[in-house]
Amino acid sequence: MSITITVSNQKGGVGKTTTSAALASGISLSGKKVLGIDLDPQGNLGFCLGAGMDSRYTVLDVLKGSVPVQDALIQTDYGDLLVSDITLSSSGLESIPANREFILRDAIRPVADRYDYIVIDTPPALNLLTVNAYSVSDFLIIPMASDILSLVGLAQLKETIESVRDSFNPGLNVLGILLTRFNARTLLSRDVLEMAQQLANQIHSKVFETKIRTGVAIAEAPAHGESIFSYNPRSSAVKDYLAFLTEIAPEIHLKEVIHNA
Q: Which has the closest alpha carbon to 10: 197, 160, 172?
């Protein structure tokens, strides 16, 4: 039985795809079987995980039922992947008359049990794709940059989570809010932390103990076709993501894997 984790925030630029890629690559490096699903039309998760740009099929083909999910899977060094591209932004899925919120669940059902973890990257919007991700997920992680603007719109995110719980997935658990671009020495970061804790209480969750600092290695690694863990394990931000993975899944024992890489 796989564990499905969705990474989501309606605001862009908060480290959503970086966090999704860190989860997928880190869990895969620990020896677990991982499926990454990119529901963001920008298609950056595939790039971060080393998928080529010439994929024959995308996740949209699977969602529309044009091809079986088995035919669309791409093998990478960090598990299997369903990639996306800009065509997902005008998917037409809204025109499906019934069970629109469960299109993803039904599409991946034939392969879901092959994996220990499924990691879903979502678009910076609260749309049907996001609702589909929430409806199939066990856990939700909300990355949030350490600035005031990142707090804007989180009330709407709270409403969406509650709506999905009420209507489609009562078992959806918000694992926590992950603060990114965090600098403990600044008053701004400390203020954002306090406000994030208040929001977390409202959705019966928490702010993760681990905070992600800024690090250039995070941006450089995809360009070199590597995960952040193999590219520069000494980076402060990479160390933070390692600690984050240990916090949410201590059984993964990733630290030994990275040390020996």
A: 160
Q: H or E stretch including 246?
A: helix 236-248
Nearest alpha carbon to residue 167 among 237, 90, 99: 99
What is d(CA 259, CA 229) in angstroms, rounded to the nearest whole number?
Answer: 10
Q: How many residues does the chain have?
A: 261
Question: What is the C-alpha to C-alpha distance for residues 62 and 15, in angstroms, rounded to an integer?
Answer: 26
Closest residue by Cα to residue 108 from 246, 2, 239: 2
Only one residue has tokens 């993803």, namely 104
Q: How far apart are CA 3 and CA 80, in angstroms?
A: 15
Per-residue pLDDT reduced to its tens digit, 106-122: 999 999 999 999 999 99
User: What is the sign of the dihedral through the CA atoms of 52, 58, 62 and 65?
Assistant: negative
Write down the domain spans for the chain: 3-251
CB atoms under 10 Å from CB of 128, counted, come to 18
Rg (C-alpha) for the chain, rounded Å, is: 17
Q: Which fold has domain 3-251?
A: Rossmann fold (3.40.50)
Strand ranges inside the chain, DSSP E: 3-7, 34-38, 74-76, 79-82, 117-121, 139-145, 173-180
193 or 53: which leads in pLDDT: 193
Phi/psi at 180 (5° precision): -115, 165
Side chain identity at residue 228, one-letter code? I
* Rounded Cα distance, 148 and 142, in Å: 15
**What phi and psi values does residue 238 have, to the nearest 5 degrees?**
-65, -40
Q: What is the average per-residue pLDDT within 193-212?
A: 91
